[in-house]
Amino acid sequence: MLGLGFSVTGAGVQGPASRPAVNGLIGWYSAKATGTITRGAGEEVISVANLVPGGAALGRLSGGGPVYVASAPVAGGRPALVWPDAANARGLTLASDALVREVFAVMAYADGARSAFDTYNTLTTDLAGLDSSSANRVMGHENNAGIFTASLPPGMTVHLNGGGATTSLLPMPLSVLHIKSASPFALASIGGRNNGSSRAWRGPVCEVLAYTDALDAAGVSRNVSYLKDGWGIS
User: Fold this and answer.
1) What's the domain of life for this entry (predicted)?
2) Residue 102: which of 187, 35, 11 has the closest Cα?
């Protein structure tokens, strides 16, 4: 178990009841933790430090990083890392792949009301998937409301706001996305390009949690509640 008995300045994290489950937690990134976000010109996000002590940071891709917005409308006026609502190759990535089994992300697609993905928009991918057709890509299916299931690793399921497994994501206002896999899968990039194309995410990403271990039902429920409550998701 990671020792996360701390309060994060600027993150709004104050005690055990207001933070996520910790067993196997290796990645925790939040737009509320402004002290962890390094910005460049135009508020472009260059890097995001890990709230897990000693954990790896995220850095911007060669196509650039998202933009930090202190009050993003699609995020209900809350802070967010925002990708442009246009074809783009922006994103954040680890320096090397991490093998994970559970990923939670608070995010919205475009304006939150769109009923189809504009391209094969990337949610997560491994390093190889940035420039090739890796099987570790999780992405929206172009001109469809759902996930491109042909690219999902075997045994992986996707959930929204604590619900059952689904392949349909849109329309997607600010939501808790939960990616769960029966076996470890490689993850490096959040929202980046895939297959060498401008297929990066569109819209805000507010918080991301990544786990090496499978969580039990109580752990999943705790995380969903923590994220929904923290970001005003009903």
Assistant:
1) Bacteria
2) 187
